[in-house]
Amino acid sequence: MTCAYCPFQGHRRAVHAHLEEAHAPEVRTRSEAETGRMFFSLSCPKCAQTMEKRVKPRWQDPGFLEEFSREIRLVAFDLLLYHLEDHEPHGEEKRS
After folding, report:
1. Which sequence spans correspond to the domains of the chain?
2. Positive or negative: CA dihedral 52, 82, 45, 73
3. Euclidean distance between CA atoms 96 and 94, whole angstroms
4. Which of 20, 72, 82, 91 is least surrounded by CB atoms within 10 angstroms?
5. What is the largest CA-CA distance in the chain?
6. How far apart are CA 93 and CA 2, in angstroms?
7. 3-state SS track over the chain
8. How far apart are CA 23 and CA 5, in angstroms?
9. End-to-end alpha-carbon separation of the chain, Å?
């Protein structure tokens, strides 16, 4: 599997770790002041589709996004890898 942002290649797990280490700024987070809801978003560099998901902490802590930023990025990049695997023609390989 090849990284969607650069020429790095490896097994899915290696690419997943690489994405978090080398491309962390690609994952954006935001919170809605009026509702306290938190979100992350990530755009596919191959097709420009944006994936946005709600972050569901058990409490409404304004520091949550920062404190758990690494875990949020890992989830976002996992979604990106599934997207790349499932959507031809930019996926390299299908999950078995």
Report:
1. 12-86
2. positive
3. 6
4. 82
5. 43
6. 10
7. CECCCCCCECCHHHHHHHHHHHCHHHCEEEECCCCCCEEEEEECCCCCCEEEEEECCCCCCCCHHHHCHHHHHHHHHHHHHHHHHHCCCCCCCCCC
8. 8
9. 14
- Residues of the chain whose pLDDT is less than 70? 58, 88-96
Task: Extract the tokens encoding 51.
Answer: 């994936």
Question: The pTM is what?
Answer: 0.84
Distance, CA of 39 to CA of 36 (rounded, Å): 10
Task: Give the chain's mean pLDDT.
Answer: 88
Q: What was the pLDDT predicted at 87?
A: 78
pLDDT score for 96: 40
